Amino acid sequence: MLKALVKSIPVQNYLEIGVDRGEIFYQIEAPLKIAIDPHFNMSKGQRIKNKFLKGHYFFEITSDAFFSTQQSFLKEHPIDLAFVDGLHTYKQCLTDILNCLNYLTPQGYIVVHDVNPPNEVSAYPVKSDRDEMKETNIKDKYKYWTGSWTGDVWKAIAHMRAVRNDLHIFTLDADWGIGIIRWGNPENKVAIPLEDIERADYTFFANHRYELLNLKPSHYFFEFIGQEK
User: So what's the pLDDT on residue 170?
Assistant: First the structure.
């Protein structure tokens, strides 16, 4: 899907938050690529190779630190495509989206991962990943949990759809939910008060999933791209 967007725009500058080992990052073809992660999960050999990759910039810092220190760099290299897959909490994801929007080109896209949690335990709003979930005995409570964690980033999409009039936002029902954000008129807006979204639990989300996310079938993406050309 990201590759399709790269060909559709096309993308000159690509930014990724939450790179980890770089499985997605290295597959994207763009003249300039920015990787942000407080702890890259890469071998020493890969780190050495990174230094010789033309047009690749690696920032081993938090996304907050990146956006607070790299304003000049971003103004010089505005974002055509951003992939947000960092800390899976509502507030952090919302902050990452808003920071990306500050530098998003008129034709640019922000793609947000893990916005459609499949069950309550996947959507648990912890501040880290599966290790903390194990420590809180969540796995014992929910025997069906597979280890996947989306957190409550769905609230970031719902929040934006409730308050912004200048963004076209929808979510693809694929890979735990892929949020798509671009400049434009909203297709529809969330009519639920923001304070209700902020304090909502998973049951609320499950009952309002389609309304909150503007959820679309996975094949809709290619129809959308075709319409935009």
Answer: 97
Whether 133 maps to a domain, the answer reads: yes
Closest CA to 114 of 64, 60, 154, 67: 154
**146-191 confidence digits (pLDDT tens):** 667 899 999 999 999 999 999 999 999 999 999 999 999 999 999 9
Same domain, 105 and 60: yes
Tell me which residue of 103, 102, 105, 101 sits closest to 10, measured CA to CA. Answer: 105
Domain that holds residue 32: 1-113
Q: Kindly report whether the global pTM for this prediction surpasses the value 0.85.
A: yes
Are the beta carbons of 162 and 220 closer than 8 angstroms? Answer: no
Do 138 and 35 lie in one domain? The reply is no
CATH label of the domain that carries residue 96: 3.40.50.150
Decide if 107 is inside a domain: yes
Place of tokens 């809180």: 136
Q: How many separate domains does the chain show?
A: 2
Question: Are 92 and 139 part of one and the same domain?
Answer: no
The distance in angstroms from the start CA to the end CA of the chain is: 16
For the beta carbon of residue 89, count every other beta carbon within 10 angstroms: 18
Query: Is 173 a domain residue?
Result: no
